Amino acid sequence: MTTFPRSGRGQEQDGPLAADAAELLAGRRVLLGRSRPADPFAQALREAGAEVDAIALTCTAPGAAEEVEQGRFLLESLWPEWLVVTSAQTLKVLDLSLLAASPRAGATPRAGCLPHSSSASRSQEGCSLMPLPRLAAVGPRTAHALAAVTGRQPDVVGDSDAEALAQALEEAGVGPGTRVLLPQSALARPVLAERLAELGAQVRRAAVYTTVPVPASSLPPAFSTHWRAGAWDAVVLTAGSAARALVDLAGPAPRRTAVVALGRPTQQAAQAVGLCVAAVAPDPTAGGVLRAVSQALNHSEGKAAAPSPGQGQDPPP
Question: Following DSSP, what letter does each residue of 236-279 receive, concatenated?
Fold first, then answer.
């Protein structure tokens, strides 16, 4: 059997959660369906004693040309009053550096004026100034990436719950007539856009990127064979696209592999492609993933220990 790259165990976590997880995860093999440097999910699982194979199942690709062009046009014409960025992947497609604060107290030119032109030239062109679009981000990772590009901290940082983010935006002033640009994945659910529209906002969605399965050639040798043979005790799927990619690339989960989903949308996507989800991490944190994997493995142990019908009973006379 091919050996996948593994990292050594880190220091043990403190508290009862770590103790319980260490008991369940020691020596277990977990497939994490993404690959990131210093991934906190992988680190937490390894510190609890699991052997983690972090393997990217998806990659990002630009969306349809007309969608990308629409997003760029709306940004460059300074149409939105709010820009809501739901993933750092957006920054790979759209250049948001033009939203960086200008020398004149955060003002930037109206449509028809070049963002990089001088104040004098803008005055000669008859351009007036308007406030920069306000920024909202989903999750701290996206917020950090957005701040790095624009030099501005987002006005609102929410989690992946569309209702909660929409409420935060409403509290920040989004309402009837507010112009909101929502550049997203082509696979994104319309819930956030619909909720903002219910508030009366003018919402323009732009599917500027999409997520596709990685080429099979980029996976470790015989990955699908090992997957079907039950090489992993558990798999952690962090997005619906990862669930679809796993089934496309390697097939349904074997009975001995517990499936863990990050959030309800991922759970629903996994179930839609025939995966039986053993546990759901309710929040995108290392602790949440650790609890969910422990729950899934505990559940699978209970199923394995349960007697089959008739087992342990006296034979009939």
Answer: EE-SHHHHHHHHHHH-SPPTTSEEEEESHHHHHHHHHTT--EEE
